[in-house]
Amino acid sequence: MVAPEGEPEPPAIAGYRSRLTPVPVQPLGRFEFYDAARSPDLALAVVTADVRTYANLLLTIGVRAEGTLTPR
Fold it and tell me: What is the 3-state secondary structure (H, E, C) of the chain?
């Protein structure tokens, strides 16, 4: 989740960007983030209790299109 346009980037976001380089980061606004976090595609949520402003992070790992699984 990113701060509204025109506000400075919070330290939490700057820290995530520096640690995730060169992984691409897709910024989401507040309500876009909430929608993504409520998605039926969400499989696991880890709540860290980080209380910094905008310290929310969604990681997308191992994405596959539907129907690509091969039966055994």
Answer: CCCCCCCCCCHHHHHHHHHHCCCCCCCCCHHHHHHHHCCCCCCCCCCCCCCCCCCCCCCCCCCCCCCCCCCC
Residue type, 50: D
0.90 exceeded by the pTM? no
Q: What is the pLDDT of residue 8?
A: 92
Report pLDDT for 72.
Answer: 55
Distance CA 14, CA 17 (A): 5
Length of the chain: 72
Measured between alpha carbons, how far is 24 from 33 in angstroms, rounded to an integer? 16
